[in-house]
Amino acid sequence: MSRIVLGVAGGVAAYKAALLLRALTEAGHDVRVVPTPGALHFVGAATFEALSGHPVTTDVWSDVPEVAHVRIGQTADLVVVAPATADLLARAAAGRADDLLTATLLTAHCPVVFVPAMHTEMWLHPATQDNVATLRRRGSVVLPPAVGRLTGPDSGPGRLPEPHDVAALAQVALTAGPDALRADLAGRRVVVSAGGTREPLDPVRYLGNRSSGKQGWALARVAAARGADVTLVAANVDLPAPFGVRVVPVGTAEELRAAVLAEAPDADVVVMTAAVADFRPATVAAAKLKKKDDPAEVPEVRLVRNPDVLAELVTKRAAGQLVVGFAAETGDADGDVLAHARAKLARKGCDLLVVNDVSGGGVFGRPDNAAVVLAADGSATQVPHGSKDAVAAAVWQTVLPRLA
Ligand code: CTP
């Protein structure tokens, strides 16, 4: 259990802070909410007190013998400020201590994540952009705002990302540190494939697999948090799009191949997490396959090979582009997991291969994962067991120094 301070500044998006608080406490964290006085115009202190189980104050004059304005920051493992308004970013950048939240920011030694939300004009104003640059230079994480509907009918950059995205990224900051969320993929284009393809047999049946898409979602979310322009080619995934990510839905391996090859040419990195079916039925029945009266009479399904998208990407990649594959492996009589994975890396010719050991049940649909990242140069980086977002963060840490 970690001690998280949830700072809430005075913007309409403060209502989402209650959901974020819920997500963080449900993940097992002890969360102390520190709103600004302005935030309490939008959400009452009672809501934050009930959901956090802690008293809520905004000023430094309550709880004086406890010296709360120093202690809350000093004892935190993570501070998340969501929403961070233009005013809050300005006061934090100036080092002010005119309420409990800004005082807490001055005494925190832990990672600090600002999640901005404001009108587009305020976000794009040079004053705000300078404050963001100052905070980032000092080591804080400032996430890019989501693009979309704002308070009124207008839309643009300035939306607070959805609480489940912020909670997942808070977990990354806690386990991997603020470096895992640096804004250093800005200007980079990333394509991630996720999910599992479905190969139709007839109009209602298909051959599929158990991939949930969660690992690809996490890779896309962390890349977008680091500023990348991310496209997610998603095969049959039933998850809300991560903030800032464009999702291209596909069904079959052929559709996935066409979508990935169309997106790849100007990408700096292509990551293939999708479980692409190696085989598909040779023919797709136009009508539903029916049972016959004789139970011994069953349809024979002949399979044909699907294209290997990863191998094709490698042969077509642009200069400087990195291609990352994923492999779920089990050990057997012919070799252990790493031996099979090294052989696969060599066979596919990609730059990196992220290897999951799925002996004994595996990772499908689970929120957590562990992996080894093998590189074509022979190196192997162990990724400790953690959330799929933490694995995603570790993968990006391995990819970044290799980007041209
Ligand atoms: N892959 C792909 N196209 C395929 C099959 C796999 O692009 N037809 C990609 C996956 O997205 C993944 C990597 O290749 O990044 C490894 O997938 P895996 O299924 O382990 O590879 P296979 O070549 O199918 O190996 P195996 O013979 O062990 O099934």
UniProtKB/TrEMBL annotation:
Record key words, sorted: Decarboxylase, Flavoprotein, FMN, Ligase, Lyase, Magnesium, Metal-binding, Multifunctional enzyme
Binding site for CTP: D278, K288, P307, D308, V309, L310, F326, K344, K348
Renumbered residue ranges of the record's region Phosphopantothenate--cysteine ligase: 190-404
Bound cofactor: record note: Binds 1 FMN per subunit.
Documented EC number(s): 4.1.1.36, 6.3.2.5
Phosphopantothenoylcysteine decarboxylase: region residues: 1-189
GO molecular function, one term: FMN binding
Domain of life: Bacteria
Catalytic activity, as annotated: N-[(R)-4-phosphopantothenoyl]-L-cysteine + H(+) = (R)-4'-phosphopantetheine + CO2; (R)-4'-phosphopantothenate + L-cysteine + CTP = N-[(R)-4-phosphopantothenoyl]-L-cysteine + CMP + diphosphate + H(+)
Residue ranges annotated for the DNA/pantothenate metabolism flavoprotein C-terminal domain, each copy included: 185-399
Gene Ontology cellular component terms for the protein in this record: phosphopantothenoylcysteine decarboxylase complex
Record-stated family: In the N-terminal section; belongs to the HFCD (homo-oligomeric flavin containing Cys decarboxylase) superfamily. In the C-terminal section; belongs to the PPC synthetase family.
Name of the molecule in the record: Coenzyme A biosynthesis bifunctional protein CoaBC
Species of origin: Geodermatophilus telluris
